[in-house]
UniProtKB/TrEMBL annotation:
Origin species: Gordonia jinhuaensis
Protein name, UniProt field: Signal transduction histidine-protein kinase/phosphatase MprB
Catalytic activity: ATP + protein L-histidine = ADP + protein N-phospho-L-histidine
Entries under InterPro entries matching the protein: 2C_sensor_his_kinase (IPR050980), HAMP_dom (IPR003660), HATPase_C_sf (IPR036890), HATPase_dom (IPR003594), His_kinase_dom (IPR005467), HisK_dim/P_sf (IPR036097), Sig_transdc_His_kin-like_C (IPR004358)
Pfam families: HAMP, HATPase_c
Length: 438
């Protein structure tokens, strides 16, 4: 923005400078020469008056009787005066008077002015053009110097104006980006520019309204979740009583229902977790090694009971610009899916993307893979290839994207889910890849 404003101002100054500078230079060149010729004409007029005074009553000057010394003051130092006058007997005589600096002539292309005196002859004054050309070039240089100064002044004004406009706009855009990322608490600046202040005030009002609505929604969500947990707890207690029934079929149904209640309770917790963590923005890069190692350690016994292995491949102490709670929740969903729906050993691989400020966390297993017919729907809300509610992957993707990352299936066979998260502040949100993985 600042660069565009600066270029537009400089471009305008250059156009104005060229439009004015070139004509002024040409006009100055012509004016200097015209001034020189006017001076020559005035000198010739003075000479003509003196020549008339030296004529005899018959209107001619006797040959050899012309006093050229009387013309000395009218001849410039770098000029040559040529006087042609009639003499008795009908002929003409020519006399020349050379200026002090014109002993070697007036050059190949002198400035020449001639005044005709009718029957009294003519006067010709030639002046070396070097001095006139020097004054002409000085005039042109002065004009272009003034143009250059105006360009420099315009550039300075352009820089100040561009900074005056661009910096507040950049700061406002940065604050708006924070608002888009869920930061509704930071203050909004006013910049002394009416239009920007109006936009800032409108965004501030919008952020306050959004913050109030989110607070109300979280309050309602908390109340609803509390009521649902109470009801689910009551249902669970009744099912526990039924699990002690003498009829084995009743016990089986009670246990199946109890599993559904537990699953519903877990998914309710996930929903509440998403709502409560939406405003917990990542403020700085956090190390991911410790939380991922702890999560793998929690799941490892579950895999061991099934004769499977959960491995972690990570080097160094990588850090990501992501809220730890969201990373933990999303990875929990992926590892749990690999436990329930995958097969063979599971590998969690953490690595940096080359030539990018992003980190990749992949979860892969050795199962049969994702069927082609459901590959494009696995992130759709409510879709499930098994007996679950189908909200796990949807919630996981939402959690990752809230910190500027993405969650995709990067391979169908073997099944591989990949989380890509930024390693620095203000990342540009990665675009989703095609919904059709390999």
């Amino acid at each position: 923005m600042q660069r565009r404003i600066l270029l537009s101002i400089i471009g305008t100054v250059l156009v104005v400078a060229m439009v004015l500078g070139i004509p002024l230079s040409i006009a100055g060149w012509i004016v200097v020469e015209d001034s020189a010729r006017e001076d020559m004409n005035s000198r010739l007029k003075a000479v003509s008056g003196e020549l008339v005074r030296q004529e005899e009553p018959v209107g001619v000057v006797r040959e050899g009787a012309l006093d050229l010394t009387r013309f000395r003051r009218a001849v410039p130092a770098n000029g040559v005066l040529t006087v042609t006058y009639p003499v008795p007997g009908g002929g003409e005589h020519t006399s020349s008077l050379t200026g002090d600096d014109a002993t070697d002539g007036v050059g190949a292309r002198p400035l020449t002015e001639t005044v005709g005196l009718g029957n009294a002859g003519s006067l010709t004054l030639s002046v070396a053009s070097d001095e006139v050309r020097r004054r002409q070039w000085i005039t042109v240089a002065t004009v272009f110097g003034a143009v250059l100064v105006s360009i420099l002044v315009g550039t300075g004004i352009g820089v100040a104006t561009a900074r005056r406009l661009a910096v507040p706009m950049q700061r406002l855009a940065g604050r708006a980006e924070k608002l888009a990322g869920g930061d509704f608490r930071s203050s909004w600046e006013h910049y002394g520019i009416t239009e920007l202040d109006s936009v800032s005030q409108a965004l501030e009002d919008a952020s306050k309204e959004i913050r109030m609505r989110l607070a109300r929604e979280r309050e309602i969500t908390g109340q609803v979740s509390h009521q649902l947990r109470s009801r689910l707890t009551a249902i669970g207690l009744r099912l526990d009583e039924l699990s002690m029934h003498a009829d084995s079929s009743v016990v089986a149904e009670a246990e199946a229902a109890q599993q559904q209640v537990e699953r519903l309770t877990a998914e309710l917790d996930e929903l509440v977790s998403v709502i409560r963590t939406t405003d917990a923005l990542a403020k700085e890069p956090v190390g991911v090694r410790v939380p991922i190692e702890a999560l793998v350690a929690d799941f490892a016994p579950l895999f061991a009971r099934m004769g499977r292995t959960l491995r972690l491949q990570i080097s160094g102490s990588p850090a990501a610009w992501i809220a730890p709670s969201r990373l933990r929740e999303s990875l929990t969903v992926l590892i749990d899916n690999a436990l329930k729906h995958g097969g063979g050993d599971v590998t969690v691989d953490v690595s940096d993307l080359h030539d990018s400020s992003m980190m990749r966390i992949s979860v892969s297993d050795q199962g049969p893979g994702i069927p082609d017919e459901i590959a494009s729907m696995i992130f759709a809300p409510g879709f499930s290839g098994g007996a679950s509610s189908g909200l796990g992957l949807t919630l996981a993707r939402t959690l990752v994207e809230s910190d500027g990352g993405r969650l995709e299936v990067t391979s169908r066979r073997p099944p591989t889910f990949t989380i890509v998260v930024p390693t620095g502040p203000g990342p540009e949100t990665p675009r989703r890849a095609s919904s059709e993985p390999r």
